[in-house]
């Protein structure tokens, strides 16, 4: 889809930041390899890497870090510019592809460093080439690959798990932050496909699922752009959340995300018409407040949010449905938006399951600016 590629360009800074962090870890593991394999082995280093590596420990560790960081940086760039296509692969296909990239990039980086180092020493090119080939074909390079390939597999497995759980959820589960329930002030955005029943009847089950995949692919990229965490996909509904404690503009970002998502789908009208003969439209609702967060499950763990905020937001979806699928929100969200936002006061409602009245607003499509 054309919009996906456009959005990829906007979220590349996020992937580049993640790539730099990953490159740093590759550098640390490069130092670890040098420390385990070569520190104190002066004669072996001289025989294997003649006239190239410094023989003191700090110099060796610096070479290890620099080489590992360079390998990680190249791998990150490959993921940045091919991430859209890699997302179509299965877990094992992605791991195999990335392992192949680890092998090729490591070979390229190590060979290039040797070539440049020897040329700077003043050796002739034929001599440089001969030494480089001999090092590449030696058992030392095999030991490097024996160290790097499992490391690459581990990194990529962690990446695949992170993509499936969500990066925020992955680290929270890994660190055990929510083993004991805690409270947080959060914003929730619910989006739901309008006229889903009629669309499902129009399409086959497979085609309907493909439609949802296309829509939520767009949503996932836009959520990343607006720093939102996707809590869950349930059928044709998605829930995105932000922490108000970490981002004071979270309410505004939730609103902007909703309209950016609708705009992205509108820009793909030709695509949806040709492939599905329908134009998907999503309704939405936003609310914020205190919720309880807890890690649940044993064999399948996930982070769950509990509280009245989610119940209220779910009830607001019905109001959105009854009002031409406009974005419905509560007073607390409305007060967190810029004064220029064009809202419509709808009234006070006693939502199902609640005793007190909730003031509801509808927001017109005027908040389509870039994230702030």
TrEMBL record:
InterPro entries noted in UniProt: A/G_cyclase, Adenylyl/Guanylyl_Cyclase_3/4, Nucleotide_cyclase
Record's keyword terms, sorted: Membrane, Transmembrane, Transmembrane helix
Keyword set includes Nucleotide-binding: no
A Gene Ontology BP annotation from the UniProt entry: intracellular signal transduction
Residue ranges of every copy of the Guanylate cyclase domain listed in the record: 187-317
Transmembrane segments: 20-40, 60-83, 95-119, 131-155
UniProt entry tagged with the keyword Membrane: yes
Domain of life assignment: Bacteria
Gene3D superfamilies, sorted: Nucleotide cyclase
Gene Ontology molecular function, alphabetical: adenylate cyclase activity
Entry-linked PANTHER family: ADENYLATE CYCLASE, TERMINAL-DIFFERENTIATION SPECIFIC (PTHR43081:SF1), ADENYLATE CYCLASE, TERMINAL-DIFFERENTIATION SPECIFIC-RELATED (PTHR43081)
Protein name (record): Guanylate cyclase domain-containing protein
Organism: Winogradskyella endarachnes
Taxonomic lineage: Bacteria, Pseudomonadati, Bacteroidota, Flavobacteriia, Flavobacteriales
């Amino acid at each position: 889809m054309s919009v996906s590629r456009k959005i990829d360009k906007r979220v590349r800074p996020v992937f580049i930041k993640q790539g730099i962090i990953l490159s740093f870890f590759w550098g640390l593991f490069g130092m670890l390899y040098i420390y385990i394999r070569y520190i104190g082995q002066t004669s072996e280093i001289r025989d294997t890497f003649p006239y190239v590596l410094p023989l003191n420990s700090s110099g060796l560790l610096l070479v290890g870090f620099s080489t590992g960081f360079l390998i990680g940086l190249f791998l990150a760039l490959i993921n940045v510019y091919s991430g859209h296509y890699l997302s179509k692969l299965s877990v094992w296909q992605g791991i195999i592809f990335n392992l192949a990239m680890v092998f090729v990039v490591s070979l390229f980086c190590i060979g290039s460093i040797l070539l440049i180092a020897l040329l700077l020493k003043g050796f002739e090119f034929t001599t440089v080439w001969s030494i480089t080939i001999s090092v590449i074909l030696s058992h030392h390079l095999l030991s490097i690959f024996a160290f790097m390939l499992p490391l690459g597999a581990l990194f990529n497995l962690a990446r695949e798990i992170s993509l499936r759980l969500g990066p925020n959820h992955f680290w929270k589960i890994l660190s055990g932050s929510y083993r004991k329930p805690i409270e947080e002030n959060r914003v929730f955005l619910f989006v739901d496909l309008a006229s889903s029943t009629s669309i499902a009847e129009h399409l086959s089950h497979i085609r309907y699922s493909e439609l949802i995949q296309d829509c939520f692919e767009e949503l996932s990229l836009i959520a990343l752009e607006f720093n939102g965490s996707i809590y869950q996909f349930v059928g044709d509904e998605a829930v995105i959340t932000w922490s108000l404690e970490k981002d004071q503009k979270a309410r505004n970002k939730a609103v902007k995300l909703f309209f950016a998502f609708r705009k992205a789908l509108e820009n793909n009208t030709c695509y949806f018409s040709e492939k599905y003969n329908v134009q998907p439209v999503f309704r939405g609702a936003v609310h914020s407040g205190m919720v309880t967060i807890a890690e649940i499950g044993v064999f399948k763990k996930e982070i769950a949010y509990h509280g009245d905020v989610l119940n209220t937001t779910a009830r607001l979806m019905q109001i959105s449905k009854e009002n031409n699928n406009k974005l419905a929100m509560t007073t607390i969200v409305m007060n967190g938006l810029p004064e220029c936002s064009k809202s419509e006061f709808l009234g006070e409602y006693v939502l199902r399951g609640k005793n007190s009245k909730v003031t509801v607003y509808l927001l017109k499509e005027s908040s389509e600016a870039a994230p702030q």
